[in-house]
What we know:
The structure holds two protein chains of two kinds.
Chain A (H helix, E strand, L loop, with lengths): L6 H36 L4 H25 L3 H24 L2
Helix pairs in contact in A: 1-2, 1-3, 2-3
Chain B lengths: L5 H30 L2 H7 L13 H12 L5 E5 L8 E6 L11 E5 L16 H9 L5 H25 L3 H5 L8 H14 L1 H14 L1 H4 L2 H7 L3 H8 L22 H11 L4 E7 L7 E6 L13 E5 L16 H14 L5 H28 L1 H7 L3 H30 L7 H22 L2 H26 L4 H6 L3 H34 L5 E2 L2 E2 L4
Antiparallel strand pairs in B: 1-2, 1-4, 2-3, 4-5, 5-6, 7-8
Helix pairs in contact in B: 1-4, 1-5, 1-14, 1-16, 5-8, 7-14, 8-13, 14-16, 16-17, 16-18, 17-18, 18-20
Amino acid sequence: MPGAAADGDAVSYRWGVAMRALLAVAGGYAISALCTASLALAFPKDRAQAVLGATMLSFTVYCVVAIWAFSAGTLARAWLVAGVLAAVPAIHLLFAWSLP
Amino acid sequence: MNGMGFRQSNAWLHTWSGLLLGWLMYAIFVTGTISFFRDEISFWMQPEQHVSMADEGTPERVLSAMQKMAPDASVWSVSLPGPRDAAVRVQWFDQGEKPSKFGGHRVALDAGTAQVLPQRESRGADFLYRFHFELYGMPRIAARWIVGIATMMMLIAIVSGVITHKKIFADFFTFRPRKGQRSWMDAHNALAVLSLPFHFMITYSGLLLLMFMLMPWGVQSAYNGDMRAYFNERGARVTATAPASHDQPFAAPLAEIGPIMAQARARWPHGVDHITVTSPGTSQAVIELRERGADSLLDRGRSERLQFDGVSGVLLESVPPPALSPVTATYNVFSSLHLLRFAGPWLRWLFFLAGFAGSAMVATGLILWVVKRLPQRRKQGSHIGHHLVERLNVATIAGLLLAVAAYFWANRLLPVEMAARADWEIRIFFIAWASCLIHACLRPHRQAWIEQLAMVSILYFLLPVYSFIYFDTHLLNSLAAGQWLVAGVDLSLWAVALFSAAGVWFLRTRQAASKRSSGAATTVKGRSYAGL
Lengths: 100, 532
């Protein structure tokens, strides 16, 4: 919280806020973009509908990641969980692109 | 956040995401709310066209006027008068010209006489409508990104705001007046919860309307970024095509429009909105009628069309719209709720009030930020950031209302024959807004509030009064004639005037009350904040 007593606390507080903001803004966008790209490929039979649904859902994903970035107990946990969230669609995409 | 609970960290997120883009969101909310009455306001801004009164014979009269005005045109496009616009708007294209929304020749016609009506060069409410998602004077795509980012932050502020208030429904019934910060908090909560479904819907659907720009990665992965292929496959773009004929066209008179209109009116409860005639005056003429205000949310308010042979007047086969999938239907519901194409007057007013509540929610949230920091400032002195937020609050919240009033006044006062008149209307909007910012920086905080709100009140009050002097469709006449289209705008202007006057009264009485009770205790660096 603001009003930290020692200077060291204030610096680490600001560092924490900056890193969480980075995770929320850039990480949030990256994760929602990955999820959208991955979901769009998940239903090849109805490609157009999958794209539409995935794109619509992307903003929910973004919102959840942004709130998570600021509410996770520690900075490390916030980034770790976000990393796992990004890895799932990323792996799917890697497979989808490498297979013919 | 480290050392914070889930609710606390959401409160923190809500405060700072709200503050960072609050002013922009307020501007988007206010101009967007005004846009619910875009057609009505645009018509109000053309006072010379208020004489237009539609009747049964309007379509026939207009088509024969078109025959005289544009006998050699490739296409006539006629927007018939309706409850939101009383004039006939016609457009025609020369042979070989590609029909487009803003091209061709365009004039307004009197629905009663089919005479050409004078047209003030003005962007009308379209300027405010465009501003709410494209701002002004910057590249369109950049502006849409800024608005899109602000909308995303709004969504985060809404969701984190809901999480912050665990007693959300109790909060709705809580209002503790005259308690300073508590009262602002209660007002903010009540306004937010009151129209929460609306806020969520309008924010999310706003994102959906920009989504292929903000989030192109689905199309990128599934279609290699080929937007056109994607839209074709989704069947989102259905274009009606006239039956192609390879015979050489010859001159032929146009079919009687009366019986065609009668057929369409029998089928459509709200009547006909639009008549398009392709190749008029030839053997290949086709008359297409478009339904006014379809009721279904599922098809994006897309109205039904009927095509008739332009010479014989016989109904042609029409292509049925493709079946909808649940995903497309969901998308359509969201986007038509935002665009409000389907709504009748009552629903339109409900949305307008919800948008007004949304604007007020953002405004009270911004004020709350200042009020909440007052006790701390009394003890520790003010930070430059506090002053900045105060100034921007006045200049945005009161200043934007004033700028819109200035825009309307410019529409009334600038000479009709002036060169670049429409640009000047917009320039005056921004000059007024910038003046509000300068004024807010020069005057003490509460004085700035009182003076700007008083000015807002006076400007809005006098707009309908000006009509009494210069136009025939002033309130007495328009109300007597039941011309609600014009009267509604005039009365709404008075409502805004009344609302701002109430704000002035509130600030002044609170100031007087606080001076009586405790003079020195509420003064910080010579400024009194008791009423805020």
